[in-house]
Amino acid sequence: MNLRRYQQTDCKEITELFYNTVHTVNAKDYTKEQLNVWATGQVDLEKWNQSLQEHYSIVAVENDVIVGFGDIDSTGYLDRLFVHADYQGKGIATAICNQLEQAVEGNITTHASITAKPFFEKRGYKVVKRQEVERQGIFLTNFVMSKEK
Question: What's the structural domain count of the chain?
């Protein structure tokens, strides 16, 4: 596996990985209705690309296939961290997260899904609060978590 900086040409593949990961990996913790409003399949590639370019964004590549990605902004907000369903448990999220955390000064915060919460807890993140996020009238539970550096 190789880690590298995000490139604009990665955007479509990343949004597909996001959709597929949410609908497979997160399916054990969320209803189909929740998954459909979280990852609708209708993405604005321009907005995603802009966000990923503004943040420090990393992709994990294996055999020319993007198997994971993550991004963090300059304030220490770890926005996205997703690993392809077929590559779970291989240390990819850990490798991406290590690099993202090293890219910023100060504390790091994230909004972790029910599925991701144990991963972040193992890394020393603490739950600040549980919250319900509304998307198209549907509520999804996640956790505001932080890690002191």
Answer: 1
